[in-house]
Amino acid sequence: MPLSVFCGRRTRSMSSTFNNEEASRLASSIAASFVVPGSLPQPQQDYGHKYDGGEHCASVSSSKVSSTGNGSSDPHQMLAAVVASPDVMSPDFLSSVRKLVWPPDLPEEDIKRWHGEGFVFSQEETTRAGLRQSRGGPCGVFAAVQAFLLKELLFSDDAIRQREEGSSEGHKKNPLLVSDDLREEALVHSLAAILWQCRPSDCSPASLVTCPPGPTTIATLAEHFSVHSSIASVTQMEQLIKEFMPSFRSETGVVLFMFSLVATRTIEVIKQDMDDPSNSLTVQFGHCAQELVNLLLCGYASSQVHDGQIPMGDTGLVLRGVSDTPEIGYLSLLEALRYCTVGEYYKTPKYPVWLVASESHFSVLFSSERKLVLDSPEEMAAKILKRSFAKQDAGGGGFVPVHSLELVLQDLKLIEAVIPSSTTGAIERLRCFLDSQSMGIILWQDFLTTMTPVITGACQIVDWEKSTSAHSTNASSSAAMTEGREVHGQGGKGWACAACTFLNDSSKDTCDVCLSSRPKAERLPTVPSTAAVQGDSKRQRVKDSSDGHASTEEADFASGFELFHYNGLEGVVNGKPRGAMLTKCHAFKRVDIVGVARGLQGFGINNVIQTKWPGCEIEWVDGKVGNVNG
Fold first, then answer.
1. Which of 286, 387, 400 is nearest to 346 (CA)?
2. Left, alpha or beta for 512 (phi > 0: left; psi -120 to 50: alpha)?
3. pLDDT (tens digit per residue) in 141-172
4. At what angle do helices 91-101 and 253-265 cross, to 10 degrees?
5. pTM of the model
6. Which of 50, 95, 150, 430: CA 20 to 30 A from 529?
């Protein structure tokens, strides 16, 4: 799309917001506050770059710089030009944006709810760093921004340093208890980070749509909006957002942020991201579509939540999901209801913060324990295997045709397209082993068990048989050990009660749950096995240390781990007003005995948590259970 369609060619008068003296003073203060000479790319000669859906490597404009009077490429003047001389949004572009954001058949009442929300913090002391939402509709936007905000509050260097300098005990109990300055800075960083990652390419500039603060009854008028379209660094973006924060706090806030997302990513690229380019970013009742959620969390508007791309047979169609590990994760109640399968990229993000989706609302689940998203070698192997397996399991049935084995192994880069003669025999034996019943299919669980040692480096693909005998020995031993004998479980060596299956400490002679006596049968030698235990209780997890070298951290889930859930939607429940809610729970991993049901009654936040940690038991502090709905 030519830039002349995206923004008006004329320069907007600043009289509606600032006079010339105020604009000059604002630009000078911004430039002096953070711009380092030479930190911005050199401007080009022509401002007429195009957002055409191809290579989005538009350079920073020089026309605005030259408008300062001397044509200098000084970065102070470049920044001043971005602030003081925004472009006017064209009517055509505004019309196209509105069609992309809200479908044509969406009732006007649902659209109006988007035009009355800004980024405002909760007035409750216990949730002072939580964003509050007064109307339904844009909850996905609020939850995504809240998730990035929590990442900043919990894991940014500045936040950690400020907590260390002050009293951190209250913050550990409630991560939302922070100072006004810290939460304001975190909000600015979060909005900027989301917009910056939405750029079509690393060399593309970002855009910020602004307007005077106030009601949005005139939001259908293009001249109401200004577009800063040549933002060349995330630092510039942060400072601009800070200067226009009154507008983002006002009723125009969410609309401005949505328009900025589209202006940065561009309409053409967003449509290319989608499985169906006719989709909109919102759906029925004005709820956020999956494309919008992915745009907020990943920077691109793909339509699915699985890992990577899945081809739809011979149709030539491809379902686009999540292509890499995002900073913020995503969990869904719909997975607990078996309507979808969330991929491991979303389940194990870079930070232990997840956007939680229900059938009608979005909220946030988070923890301050970084170890929750650090994988053991076995877990990492399972995720790698699952991604390649799923590409041939388009129906999600948990099996693939036996003739697809080579394709899966090629995707794993274990074999080449042309299999050498030295490997042919091993692959054929592997095929026969995985399809021992001659049914023409390979089951996922059999594939996972057999191939995990190959992925973890315990053996080569030609030596896969060596791992099967060892696994069979461990499985048979662990099955016997669960019958009242010792196992390695949560907290180390212990014994599983034969009556209730609870895993007790080895020092106890009676079960802590049902008080049954410890069996006196002769104990078998203890062998660690994931067949008896839902994951190893203690695992060496690799993480990056401050000096850049790999270090290890022992994750012990014997005492459980803490999770917080935040729901920022305010409303009236049973005739009583309800504000934003922060709830806390402890999750415990227990022994997963075959044939013993571990399900919970009903569907809610507990079931969502179990999609990430299957079989875990959850205890909510003070009996206050997190609410995933509005």
1. 387
2. alpha
3. 999 999 999 999 999 887 777 666 665 555 66
4. 100
5. 0.71
6. 430
Q: Determine contact, residues 8/88, Cβ cutoff 8 Å.
A: yes
Both tokens of 492, joined, read 């180390």
DSSP letter for 368, please.
S
In which element (H, E) is residue 355 found? strand 353-357
Q: In the chain, count of helices (H) and strands (E)? A: 23, 21
Cβ neighbours around 164 below 10 Å, total: 8
Q: String of b and e for 179-190 (b: at least 16 CB within 10 Å)? A: eeebbebbbbbb
For residues 442 and 257, give the distance between their C-alpha atoms in angstroms, rounded to a whole number.
47
Report the side by side order of strands in the sheet with 492-496.
486-489, 492-496, 503-505
List pLDDT tens digits, range 590-626: 644 444 444 444 569 999 999 999 888 899 999 899 9
Handedness of CA 409, 413, 416, 422 (dihedral sign): negative
Structure-token pair, residue 230: 């040549």
Instruction: Identify the residue whose tokens are 């693909």.
Output: 461
Closest CA to 472 of 439, 495, 448, 449: 449
Structure tokens at 319: 């379902």
